[in-house]
Structures are given as structure tokens and as C-alpha cells.
Amino acid sequence: MRRISKLTRVAVGVASLALAATACGGTSSDSGDSGGKDDLGVAIAYDIGGKGDQSFNDAAFAGLEKAKKEFGFKTADVEPTEGETDADKEQRLASLAKQGYNPVIGIGFAYGPAMEAVAAKYPDTTFGIVDSVVEGENVASLVFAEEQASYLAGVAAAKATKSNTVGFVGGVDIPLIHKFQAGYEQGVKDTNAKVKVVSQYLTQTAEEGGFSSPDKGKAAAEGQIEKGADVIYQAAGLSGQGVIEAAAKAKVWAIGVDSDQYNQEALAGYKDYILTSALKDVGGAVYTLTKSVQDGKPLTGTQVFDLKVNGVGLSDSNPKMAEIPGLKEAVDKAKTGITDGTIKVNTE
């Protein structure tokens, strides 16, 4: 079985998988038709917030479901526990590998230390980690150009605002979320330098609930709306649902993240106020890694999912986008600039 260990760009279908994300809760394992070790397929271990966040984790589940449907094998998806340690994560990943799942994918950077330890103990299993780089001959690091999708979100926000004040709500004050903020702010400023961006982080650490507290997101959005923001972009996981709720209540625009949140069933009551979503095809990455294992050529090393290969993007599901003068043209121009290299997007 040949290993491919290098920095590569992997093409995926951002729109199709983002639209496939579902709003199911709980922990599940589909037993399939047979129980032999060689018959087991992909397993994912969720990040904070778990399945049903209508965003990051649900995007990963969409990729698992696509692989299951196409390849017809057993799958498993396992929820995190509150206040868990790296040892807990290590035990979870090791259990999935021991059962025979391949690949085993950790959804979120928090799995980094655990995956580094476990991957070395199971050299015949391919591991994947989203949003982090872990060294290992049998590890694929699935990373994204979040700043590029966020830039497009900033362009849309600058075109949609009437108050010339827009907001950004980040779940946790960490480098990963700084990429979302940096791209968004640059997109806003490049489109209309007169627009002010009000930014806020919900917590300093994930343990404080920045990615899993809709009430915190709602309060932050309400504060930004009081300051005049009429478009708010959130990169806050499950907490982002509170941002969207607050925006809808105030009848201002929200911009979703990771999945196409306009099409999420659990957010249907707010969809008229979800202008667009900055897409991050976590599901596509899960599927791509799974297919590589299925094909006998498992990907390893750092795999980059950017705008050029449709690993990130901006949704256009809300027909009201087309009613905003110049928005589509500005977004299309920005896409071209990013992909041809004339626009360099900040990451911090």
C-alpha cells in the first residue's frame, strides 16, 4: 500500500457536501451487513459541540454519509464528552483503530496530541485530522484556507450593509479563528473602506464554551447590533446558532460558516436572514481521505483545501443575495483575484 506524504491540494465539491449536512444528534454506529475487521470503513470523532451543530461537525458527518452510501461499508461517529482530556481523546481514537476502522478521523485541532500518540501505535491504520498538522507516516492533515472563504464573506457583507457597520463573532480566541477574522476584515475593507468592523471573541479557551454556547453567541450579536451592525459573520460552531437567532430577531443579516446554514433544517426559522455562508468542505475532506484508503492509495501529509480546488467557498442559496446591487459581481471578481493570485488574503 503506497503512502503519499507531501503538501498537496485536493479537489473536492464544496457545495454538494455542504448541502448534504444533516441535523441529527447523538452517537451512532451503523453495523452494516458484516462485522469482519477488513470490512470496516471510516470513523470520525467529533469536535466540541458534536453532531447537530448545523456547521463544522455536521459537515464532517455529510462526508461520512457520502462515503457510506458509495462504498457500502460500516461507519462510526463518536461524540466528545464534556471536560475531556487528551487521554480521553487518545482512548477514543485507539478504540476505533483497534476495532478495525480505517481511516479514523479526528474532527478538530484538539485531537492533535492524541492523534500523534495513537497513530504511531497503529501504523496500518490511516488517520486524518481536520484543522491541524500532525506529523506521521500514516497521518493526513486536512487543512483549509478559511481566510479565503471569509474574504468572500467580507465582500458580501460590505455590499449588503446599509449602516456601514458589520460584525464578526469568533468562538474562541485562537489562531485558527483569527484566520476567519483576518480574511473577513480584509474583504470588507477592500470592498468599502468606509465600513467599520466590530469584532468579538466569546471565550479565550474552548473549555469555556466558545464553540458550544448559543447563549453566548446570541448575547455577543445583540451587543454588536446595538452598536449598529446590520451584518454579522460568525465563526463559532454551535454558538453561531445564537448569533443567527439574534440577527433574525433584529431583522439584520447573519453570515453562516462551514456548512450552508441557509439550508439547515434546524435553522429554517431564521433562513430569511442568513445572507450567505462561508463554506469549508470538511465533508469533502472526510470523503476524499476515505476514498483514497478505499482505492489502496491512502493520502498522508498535509492536504490543503482552498478556493482553487473548491475546498472553501461562499454559498448562494439565499435568492435575496441577487437583489443586492453589485454583490454577485464583487464576489465573482474577488474569487478570480484570489485564485489567480492577484489578491493575497491575510491569515492574521
TrEMBL record:
Q: What are the alphabetically sorted keywords of the record?
A: Cell membrane, Lipoprotein, Membrane, Signal
Signal sequence extent: 1-20
The protein's topology relative to the membrane is: Lipid-anchor
CDD domains linked to this entry: PBP1_PrnA-like (cd06354)
State the PROSITE patterns in the record.
Answer: PROKAR_LIPOPROTEIN
Give the InterPro entries listed for this entry.
BMP_lipoprotein, Peripla_BP_I, PnrA-like
The residue ranges of the ABC transporter substrate-binding protein PnrA-like domain are 49-335
Q: Which GO terms describe its cellular component?
A: plasma membrane
Q: Does the keyword Membrane apply?
A: yes
Q: Note the Gene3D superfamilies from the entry.
A: 3.40.50.2300
From the Swiss-Prot or TrEMBL record, state where the protein is found.
Answer: Cell membrane
Where the protein is mainly located, per its record? membrane
> Which family does the UniProt entry place this protein in?
Belongs to the BMP lipoprotein family.
Name by which UniProt lists this protein: BMP family ABC transporter substrate-binding protein
Report the source organism: Streptomyces sp. R17
